[in-house]
Design goal:
The chain has 21 helices and 12 strands. With 510 residues, the protein is α/β, with parallel strands linked by helices.
Length: 510
């Protein structure tokens, strides 16, 4: 009897044994293995990897969704995001073929290029992929070479939605109006909507300055209202046409709801005062006035991130905070927002985003601003015409990252070599070509005599890789060279809150 009961107990115990599986995203690491071994469960779990890398957020936008990539690389010295980026670049080449030309600037960009080449040598591309070329050039830029642009307030429609409401993983939360009924959620109940080019109205408005978007939205609303009032006089065929257009009206209605929080902020004088202060800082006007403005914001209890962005902007554009104000600004900030943010300030200083002026450190921003023509007079002549320069989207400021891409596509970086020397890290311009034996070899790019590195006559597809984050305004308005019929601009890091992914990942996570 005892033998029989022991066998039944053993069978019952075997039936209750659980199997545990752990899947690591995006990959397994040695550190994780050591933790499992220390806990004594390494042999008790089945492990696997799920390589979640390139995520398409739009027709021409991909992301690795690494929200803390800038912080990890710059502050913590963790280069794992660079490895993930290199793996993603190699995967794209396996799918779309070898990328013949690699250009880049910055320490992280050079590291990604080296890791990509090393991985390619360890795991050679398939013969078909090595002989195919659907992406003609990749431009890899390090966010660290342009930390000014993410600090400036965006004024495009999509940029302001991100500044005010916040776009997460390509979607945004909003409150549907009552007129929307059950189409987007119950009245007054928050809903989430994806923002991409599948919405024809959003595709039209996303990259326009807000004042133009507002005018067009009002015009579309007036036209829809007029068409609705004339329904009684329409015949059957016209009614059918109107009914087919109802889905578009719902999209326009939803877009109007997204614009409400933006309109409430834009109409405030404080918003325009902030834009003016940012422009004065970029132009190198009276820094004392900008410091006084920031002090006023702190005394009034303005948003923490707004104050930090302005402080970092002064530091970046003026070669550091004015020495006589650095200590007082630090003390007033801690008094206004709490001494727990002493670590926040310390981390920003370690990242090089916030520091006092020093006679031993030269302010190179004025030289870069002049060489690359980052400031363009805004005379208002482009309000009703097609803009000729990206600067109209930042009230006269052209982002440094976009200027670098323009020069890379139009004439090469040789003509701005002096300006590039002021930026951190080395630049590279190399080719990946097949030798007679079919192996991929790397060699430096040498422009043909008389071309100065300009693009050829054939159209090319350009892949832009931004390491450390990119703003929505930069995503939607990178230049189109005359020789490029298609440009696929790819960001490999998350578009975070306020559109300044790199810097925000250093601040709130503290």
């Amino acid at each position: 009897a005892s033998s029989s009961s022991s066998r039944s107990a053993a069978a019952s115990g075997a039936a209750n044994v659980h199997e545990y599986s752990v899947f690591w995203v995006p990959r397994h690491s040695i550190a994780v293995q050591k933790v499992l071994e220390e806990e004594g469960v390494y042999g008790d779990v089945q492990q696997g990897e799920f390589c979640l890398d390139v995520i398409p957020l739009d027709d021409d936008v991909l992301s690795l969704e690494l929200s803390c990539a800038y912080r990890d690389c710059v502050l913590d010295g963790d280069t794992a995001p660079l490895f993930y980026t290199a793996c993603a670049l190699l995967k794209l080449q396996e799918v779309y073929g070898l990328i013949p030309r690699l250009q880049g600037k910055g320490p992280a960009a050079a590291a990604v290029k080296d890791i990509t080449i090393k991985l390619r040598k360890e795991s050679p591309l398939p013969a078909a992929a090595a002989a195919t070329c659907r992406i003609h050039r990749a431009i890899i830029l390090d966010r660290d070479i342009d930390v000014i642009t993410p600090l400036i307030t965006q004024i495009t429609f999509e940029g302001l939605i991100d500044e005010i409401t916040g776009i997460r993983h390509g979607s945004v939360s909003y409150t549907p109006s009552k007129r929307e009924g059950g189409g987007g959620g119950a009245p007054g109940r928050p809903a989430t909507v994806f923002l991409n080019s599948s919405d024809p109205f959003y595709k039209e408005f996303r990259d326009l300055p807000y004042y133009i978007t507002s005018q067009r939205l009002q015009q579309y609303a007036r036209d829809a209202r007029k068409e609705y009032t004339e329904l009684g006089s329409k015949d059957l065929s016209e009614l059918k046409t109107f009914v087919k257009g109802l889905p578009k009206l719902l999209l326009l209605d939803r877009l109007s709801d997204l614009a409400v929080p933006v309109a409430e902020v834009v109409k405030e004088q404080s918003f325009h005062d902030r834009l003016k202060t940012e422009q004065d800082i970029l132009e190198g006007y009276d820094v004392e006035e900008a410091v006084q403005y920031v002090q006023g914001l702190m005394w009034r209890g303005a948003d923490l991130l707004v104050v930090l962005r302005l402080l970092c902007l002064i530091s970046g554009a003026c070669g550091g905070l004015p020495k006589k104000h650095a200590d007082s600004l630090r003390n007033e900030f801690l008094a206004a927002y709490g001494h727990q943010h002493l670590l926040t300030l310390n981390h920003l200083e370690r990242a090089g985003l916030l520091r006092p002026q020093s006679p031993n450190i030269r302010n190179t921003f004025p030289s870069i601003r002049k060489a690359l023509k980052l400031l363009v007079p805004d005379d208002g002549s482009e309000l009703h015409s097609a803009p000729a320069d990206i600067s109209h989207l930042y009230k006269g400021y052209a982002p440094l990252s976009i200027r670098l891409v323009e020069h890379a596509l139009q004439g090469g970086w040789g003509q701005i070599a002096e300006a590039l020397s002021y930026l951190p890290g080395a630049q590279f311009d190399s080719l990946q070509v097949l030798d007679p034996s079919g192996q991929v070899v790397d060699k430096p790019f040498k422009p043909a005599p008389g071309t100065a590195g300009a693009a050829g006559s054939e159209a090319e597809t350009v892949l832009l890789v931004m390491l450390g984050g990119i703003t929505f305004t930069e995503v939607g308005n990178h230049p189109y060279n005359a020789s490029c019929s298609a440009c696929c601009y790819v960001r490999f890091c998350e578009l975070d809150c306020y559109g300044w992914c790199g810097v925000t990942s250093v601040v709130p996570s503290m």
